[in-house]
Amino acid sequence: MIDTTTSVLVFVLGLLLVVFTLDSAVRTFVLPRGENVILTRLVFGVTGAIFDFWARSTRNPRRRENIRAMYAPVSLLWLAGFWLALVLAGFMATFWAAGVRGWSQAFLLSGSSLLTLGFAPVSGNLQTVLAFVEATIGLMLIALLIAYLPTMYAAISRRETAVAMLETYADAPPSPIRLITRIERIHGLAYLGELWKDWELWFAEVGESHTTFAPLVYFRSPKALHHWVTSAGALLDAASMTLSAVDIPFDPRAALCIRSGYLALQGICEINGFQFNPNPSPDDPISITRGEFDTALHTLDEEGVPLKTDLDQAWRDFSGWRVNYDAVLLSLAAMTYAPQALWSADRARLLPKKSKKNG
User: Fold this and answer.
1) Which of 24, 187, 249, 274 has the CB geometry, 3.0–4.6 Å to 269, for a possible disulfide?
2) Could you tell me the sign of the dihedral formed by the alpha carbons of 131, 105, 89, 99, in that order?
3) What is the pLDDT of residues 19-74, one digit of tens each?
4) Is the pLDDT at 294 greater than 90, yes or no?
5) In sequence order, which residues have a C-beta less than 8 Å from that of residue 26 and are 6 or more positions away?
6) What region does 240 belong to: left with phi over 0, alpha with psi -120 to 50, or beta?
7) Rounded to an integer, what distance in angstroms lies between the CA atom of residue 247 and that of residue 237?
């Protein structure tokens, strides 16, 4: 015989589990602001470890990329299944506390109600109410996923359009050096202003969508050598090199593009719980060496790009711009296993430590 105190305790624990699951679903897909959701992070983390092990077990680069491309879609489906499983477990407890004896019978009744199968009979008003509530929650969770998939893929499509277009100027994987030299050869450097304006808007859209729908971060491009993180890095480096070393009039659109970019990357890193300094000093070290910078300038000079004469000041200016996004760029490149690209994924360190604040 189960005493009343135990039944009430089990009932409350079951309801808390259901509420916790619904809260996670709402904060993941409905709340119009970035949230670091424990359940979502847990599912993507466990799935990521499995897919990472699977990808590392193959030596075929094409197969490895295909495996990584499946990671985000599979994780999203598993996330919906995990929510349903937790709701089922929570209502199992409430049905058991409401008089259904035997956990197997409680599981049967909870599953029948959640999936609206209706083959398991209920007994009494409380069990009837619980069955209706669980069926409603099950339909809501499925509808939530179905409704937001088009929204998420629309955001991916907008993101990837600009990434694909960048190959026209910067190749694939993208290179900031190639971007500057090719635009100089085709349009002239004055055309860069239009590029900065377009990508300032791109960074704003990515920053908004990838914090509102955190799983978007892990979705890869249709082409293996394309990636939103490496594209962002190439654009930001091109803007930083133009402002610091290219001998053309100062363009505030380049500075605004850099600011829009590092604010977007910082926001995405914050949602994913990574440590970074939001206000670094211009003298802080960056992952690019002076030798790499001088080599890049030599290439620009050979291609006919006009350069400033004071290269020491150019290096200091470039470092001062790059330090704003250096750490967050490499963190995102490591977290998303971005393909190798100059000055981003080619030096991305191992997955950074999570901050205490964000878990």
Assistant:
1) 274
2) positive
3) 999 999 888 887 777 677 888 888 988 998 999 999 999 988 889 999 999 999 99
4) yes
5) none
6) alpha
7) 16
Residue 34 confidence (pLDDT): 67
| CA atoms of 56 and 79, how far apart (whole Å) | 23
Q: Residue 1 pLDDT more than 70?
A: no
The CA-to-CA distance between both ends of the chain, in Å, stands at: 42
pLDDT of residue 323: 97
* Residues sharing a CB contact under 8 Å with residue 356, sequence separation 6 or more, in sequence order: none
Q: What confidence tens digit (pLDDT) does each residue in 162-171 have?
A: 999 999 999 9
